[in-house]
Amino acid sequence: MQKTDELAEGQATAAVPRGEAADAPGGEPPRYWPLLLVAAAILPGAALVLVGQSVSGPALQAWRTVCLSVTVQALPFLLLGTALSGAINAFVPAEVFHRILPRRPVLAVPVAGAAGVVLPGCECASVPVANSLIGRGVTPAAAFAFLLSAPAINPVVLTATAIAFPGRPTMVLARLLASLATATAMGWLWLWRGRTEWLRPAARHTGHRPGHSRWSEFRTGFQHDFLHAGGFLVVGAMAAATFNVAVPRSVLDAFSGSPWLSVLFLAALAIVLAVCSEADAFVASSLTGFSPLARLTFMVVGPMVDLKLIALQAGTFGRAFAIRFSTATTAVAILCSVVIGGVLL
Amino acid sequence: MKRPLQTVLLALSGLGLLHASLFTDLCLRYVKAGMRPALIASGAVLLALAVAEAWPRRRPGRGTEPAAHEETGDGHHPTDDDHAGHGHDHSAVPRVAWLLLLPALSLLFYAPPALGAYTASRQAPEAVPEREHFDPLPSTSPVPMTLTDFTSRVQQDRKQAIKGRGIQLTGFVTPGGRGDGWYLTRIILTCCAADAQSIKIRIHGTPALPANTWVSVTGTWHPGGTLGTKSAPVALDAHTVKKITRPSNGYTDALPFPAP
């Protein structure tokens, strides 16, 4: 079993360099690139089949099931997000954002964070939308506040939280406030410390250009964003499945004793498990051994940072950004949950 | 060169989703039944994208209005390199997109089974919510029950309504490890397999079937401790064990839909 876990892990990590290779600046590809593409597409699958036949252990089966399940579950939301991002790009004039958002970035950040309420769905949808917002001239700090808050504070997720913690409305309130606080703090942090060169330019999102059909602009943008983000979604799903299979849930009980360790541990668990933000409240409510504060941290960190999301961000904004942003977000999210949870819970 | 490959990728992804959700029940191994309409819609959208992508190529002479625009639209890449003339841009879609082939082909040809005994055996059982009020049991015999309901009846119902009653439970077989008996199990998904939780009931009195077999078990509560408190074992003395096919709501802890 240990062996199959390692194999599964090998699969996931083997996939990452290919993803990173795509980050290299374009240039003229070599002439044999179709062969490379086909190899990149076939080799992992072939390896998977071979490993599957030689080992065929239940661990590998569970790994494939979890991986496929995460992908299948996320695809509709990813399509929704990329369709929205394509629509924002093709149909919404840039002036709209300038009119809605306050002109000063410092004020635009909390407004954009609160605007996250309107995007129903989980975190896969928010990355392409945030990217197209940046492409349309929204200040990156405000777009990032939106990116972080949207999956955590939309009505679907808050309702799920209320259902998962019956009779404890403070948990919903704490989640809302801590998520908003984290999103706003991260927006301001970007204004203060962020550098544009960490961001890969949002190449596709040029908005509507005169003389072009809006519908075909919508379609090409939609398709490009989907294919792009979809590949990274698979990378993220593989990584999440690896941890899901390799770390049994029963390990958790070892950490539930110490209050501080348990907060950090559940934050780390939220990152590696990559549970969808619509479901993480139920997972949090099932972690009965842990303090409410630790469970709040799980629900605040989860929608903002997880393996699937880091892969998506690396694909959309570039690796330099994804690493720095995710690290800072984790720290800020833990801080906000501890402060707000400490007051409310 | 590039665009047919994109078309293939989109079409395979769309076909994979449609195959799993519309033509077969495969998707029920991975997500809950409620996701099915969304999956069908996604598959249709992906296929539509593939058709739209392929259309101008197959009819090069006709050049419908949007298609003509699209050719130029695709070419004006904002990094304005030299591709503007011939309508497609090699760097447009990164290679990582090819990873989408894995789930697509996996759904089409090599679909893994639903989560089962392996996952359940590695998890602590799910905590059953506290209940104050229990309705009287219906008078049918045996009484069909969910595993969660049975657990809370055993450990929380002070009126001991299940004492001496015939109970019918459904789930799949998880080997019990040491000691007598095996586990009747359900895996419960909230969203997808990443958040799977399991609920188990110990079954005594019959030999275990192979792991992951779906069964319907009738029997009576396995006595021990004080019924209605935490000391009571969540276990059943089985009288009959009948093999069934996996119900379509297999990832919820609900009464099984009637077999077709």
Name a few traits of the molecule.
heterodimer; A: 345 residues; mainly alpha; disordered N terminus; B: 260 residues; alpha/beta; OB fold (Dihydrolipoamide Acetyltransferase, E2P); 2 domains; five-stranded mixed barrel; 6 helices
Short description:
The complex is a heterodimer of chains A (345) and B (260). Chain A is an all-alpha fold and 345 residues long.
How is this structure best described in words?
The complex is a heterodimer of chains A (345) and B (260). With 345 residues, chain A is mostly helical. Chain A has one domain (2-8, 60-344). Chain A has 15 helices and no strands. In chain A, helix 3 (58-91) packs parallel to helix 6 (123-135) and helix 8 (155-164) runs parallel beside helix 12. Mean pLDDT of chain A is 78; it is low at 1-29. In chain B, 31% of the residues lie in helices and 16% in strands. Chain B has six helices and six strands. Chain B has a five-stranded mixed β-barrel with strand order 2-3-4-6-5. The radius of gyration of chain B is 26 Å and the shape is elongated. The two termini of chain B are 48 Å apart. Classes of the chains: A mainly alpha (345), B alpha/beta (260). At the A-B interface, helix 1, helix 2, helix 3, helix 10 and helix 12 of A face helix 1, helix 2, helix 3, helix 4 and helix 5 of B.
